[in-house]
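[PROTEIN RECORD]
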Amino acid sequence: MSVQYYSPGSFTEALQVLERNSNYTLLAGGTDVVPRLNLRQVKGLQGLIYLGNIVEMKKIVEHNEHIFIGALVTHACIAASELIKQKAYNVWYASYHMGTPAIRNVGTIGGNLVNASPAGDSCVALLAAGALASIKSLHENRLVPIKEFFVDKGKTVLKPGEILYGVYLPKAATGIKKGCSYQRIGTLKGSSTAIINIAVEIEQDTDGMCRACRIGAGAVASTPVRLYSLEEIFVDKRINWNLIEQAANEVDAHINPIDDTYATAWYRRKVIKVLLKRALAEASGLASEEKEV
């Protein structure tokens, strides 16, 4: 069976090709698509649209209120970015520890999102960052909160003819201190699928009052999720160990992990409590206090 291959030189050209061939598969770094092709897991493949020549999707740009990361920015590029490390630490951490060097050099943040793995490392970090996905087609441009981007395992809100253009990361307001923490456990450090991964961002004012808390978790449901009920425990309060213990005790009611080849649901329920306490303590600044978590 013959397969058509397109390599557009601009984003507009890519949209035009996709408009004419909405059933074609988009190809970026190929770290997910190529193995699936080799295993004959892509059913009814008719064509590939390679996006790697679109320069505008490979940029990291800082604006007054947000940072833009193009969908084709590789994990290696993010890991090398001092801007991302300083102002979006969890996103930096997820990319820095993503897979092996070979994966980081070609794998893209957009590909990690569109893959929509329940344990996607960048997905969890972007949830905690409160990021927005920039989605474009020939007929419409829209911004979708990352928390609404994932529909089910391997499925997103992308419609036929649409391409994920990039993500916007909001910056903390003036006078707000943002604390971040990313915790992860896998069978192998970094290079394996996460058994549990969790990212926390906490924004505190000059009086130490929590003004915003975002908790993203992976491998606990059919998609990466925000743990809203736990976030509410901390907002408009001064974070202390009692609140952290409360969140850890309540997390079990808000997750639905499964048994798979990596771990049992029972193990995941045990581990997430430990990682959640560590992440909350680090992001809030309490980790320096003498308490074992």
In short: The longest strand covers residues 194-204. Residues 177-284 form a domain with the Enolase-like; domain 1 fold (CATH 3.30.390.50). Residues 204 and 210 are 4 Å apart (CA to CA). The chain has two domains: 4-170, 177-284.
